[in-house]
Design brief:
alpha+beta, 2 domains, 9 strands, Chorismate lyase, 256 residues
């Protein structure tokens, strides 16, 4: 922010933004509750909410409504706002991410598995056609696997994001850094979403990618996220090794 700070909430926004950007408060870390911040700055909780809304709009934080689902790796929480590569590193877990494919596809041709299968009935039922907030006719598909040691793959992820801005050039340029960072540079900041989790046996292709036997049991997660104005941000389908990953649900969380 630039220029003189005159309003109470702007003083809070500037102070918290400085702490986040300097690393004093790690990006994606949970801030104190509204009541604690109100006491710290000597303002009302309404003023704090206004400041947090500005930080959320700037992509520095993501506010939560008191409930949600969070992926755990070996019992340690992974904050999706950071991207899993950074979140795992923050937990002291060394991983290597291998990008398998980056492709530009028409959303009407994608089936629920993220492939160009040509089976229109499956596309309509489980693909991206008709997903709220997705205005771009094309999407970029990114497939990745994560390894915690050589030859030890713990997850396979397939992300679909709108083919807008610099994201449309990813198939030609490649993914430098994390996909979360690329989304932020494109002005796409997740605000809310939904996640589904089930278990299933992996097929032959997935088994080859995960270096497991066909029919092995994996956690299957689908997360879809939108911006505050309802714009589609990302759908990511993941296969997670249940020996390392689990899902934690919270509800009725207090803000103070």
């Amino acid at each position: 922010m630039t220029g003189p700070v005159r309003l109470k909430h702007q003083r809070i926004t500037v102070a918290l933004e400085r702490e986040i950007r300097s690393g004093q408060v790690p990006r994606g870390a949970r801030l104190p509750g509204e009541l604690a911040l109100a006491r710290r700055f000597g303002v009302s909780r309404t003023t704090v909410r206004t400041a947090l809304a500005e930080l959320n709009e700037a992509g520095l934080i993501t506010t939560r409504t008191g409930k949600g689902s969070f992926v755990l790796f070996d019992g340690r929480p992974l904050d999706d706002r950071l991207g899993w590569a950074h979140a795992l590193a923050a937990q002291g877990v060394e991983t290597r991410t291998r990008v398998l494919r980056i492709a530009l596809c028409h959303r009407e041709e994608l089936c629920g598995r993220g492939d160009l299968c040509g089976r229109e009935e499956l596309c309509r039922r489980d693909g991206l056609a008709g997903v709220p907030g997705l205005d771009s006719p094309e999407v970029v598909v990114i497939e990745r696997v994560r390894e915690v040691a050589p030859q030890t793959v713990v997850s396979y992820e397939r992300s679909c994001v709108p083919a807008v801005g610099e994201l449309r050039d990813l198939p030609a340029r490649g993914l430098a850094g994390s996909l979360t960072e690329a989304l932020n540079r494109a002005g796409l900041h997740p605000d809310h979403g939904e996640q589904r989790l089930s278990g299933r046996m992996i097929d032959d292709r997935e088994a080859e990618l995960l270096r497991r036997e066909p029919g092995a049991w994996f956690l299957s997660a689908r997360r879809t996220s939108w911006a505050g104005d309802g714009t589609f941000i990302e759908r990511v389908d993941s296969l997670l090794d249940p020996a390392h990953f689990e899902l934690s649900l919270t509800f009725g969380e207090k803000t103070s």
